Amino acid sequence: MSQWRPLKGDFLDEMLWHEVLGDDHGGPRCAYCEAPYIPAHDTTRLFKCYDCGQFLQCDDCCLLHHERTPQHVIEEWSGQFWVSCMLAQIGLVYQLGHSGFPCPFPDSTVRKLVVMEAPIIHEIRVSYCKCAKSDNADNLQQLLRNAWYPVMVTDPGTCATFRSMESYRLYNVLGNMNVRDYCWKYKLDPHERYKQFQRMARQWAFLKHLKRAGRGHDPLGVNSTALGECTVQCWACPQEERNLPDGWEDSFKDARFLYMLILAVDANFRLKNRIRTNEIDDPSLGPGWGYWVEPTKYKRHLKNIYKRERGTISTCIAFAALLQKDTRLTTGLRVSGVGGCVCARHECMCPNGLGDGRPAEGRKVRLQYANMDFIVMSALAGFSLLWLTISYDIACQWKLHIVERVPKLPQELCLPLDKIKVQYALPVWHAGSHNEDCQDENSLSLKVGVGKTDGEGVERTWSVLNPAAFSTKDSGCGVHTDSLEGKIDNHNYLKNVGQ
């Protein structure tokens, strides 16, 4: 910085140099054809393009060299200063459907198209291809093949570039930026473009989700996607046919901990979702394909169980305080929070290991055992298990009648607990809230084969997802679930590569 201070005036002069004709103020001319600029005549107009470089171009050369780059930003010299201009204003018509080659039979109708590419909104005149050389691609396909994402599927008049869509997705996943802030940041009129861009951003994030999971290569199509298939799974957790040796089921007793799955379960009341009076039926784009449980069966299960869930007096004197922690006022809420399930050793969210806490009748509700039973068993459905440890801050109470509750779940989630060695435990930090007898019986530190696992990884996962609570609190049902998928994908990937 000390070396730069004496040069600050020179830097400012060079910035102002771009506001005039630069070195060509004496006899400005086109850098391509050397046509001179004569202020008194309209025969030659001067332009410069920030994307091509800081040199002058006449109108003919500018059109010629931008036939394949309609999104370049140009300015025209007015005689005293540079004025913003668009290529469509000087006659450019961009041909779609031929990857830059001319079309022998273009559409006779030239259409105006708005293309959002932050921080610019372009108005581009386009001509669709109507010949057979474009593989009979319709207008929608021609836009997508040009890396322009259309706002609607019937006669779109607005698009956004793939680069802008990916830019927003990364800002949202890594920086929790919402669509409104993105529109303001890049000077996109929020009143005019907000809903359009919001819809496109949600679709784009979902398509990236499918692409990462390889669903575009399935000959049966994306609708054949199985539950939990669109996830970034933990690389290190024991999974048959992935990282378990042959004969692992017959391993010696002292080595069984190597093939034991350890899960951490918890409820999070920051990720609420409000009831909206103008809410429309807008479910998730991929229900149950990612980290959320399958919604239809989940709702049906809760509807049957919520009638009256059997309570049991806890043997732990500290349980009443923990119950208050899991109790919240739910007036005006569609979702009071979420329940989640992660692998305790590596802190990756499990496929189908996330579910909404849906309020029952009345003003207060907690994430009941029915919720957590469904979430945990959904997460375990993809594993072949003989040994299992589950860490939960109210495990001392939750475990008491789980053998009786599991058969009430959908048949495919009824894990045969009588054939699996299951340990229920309290996470290390939370165990201090329980009395000594409860700690002696349930502390994770005293369980066989868990090593130094603390069981608090799910709390650290919430710290990653909680910043999204503000932007998802007032969103619709489908947006609430879909918007977290990309964040969890990123979280799981970083955990995998960082192990």
From TrEMBL:
In its UniProt entry, what is this protein called?
A: CxC2-like cysteine cluster KDZ transposase-associated domain-containing protein
Recorded source organism is: Mycena albidolilacea
**Superkingdom of this entry's organism?**
Eukaryota
Q: Which residues form the CxC2-like cysteine cluster KDZ transposase-associated domain?
A: 87-183
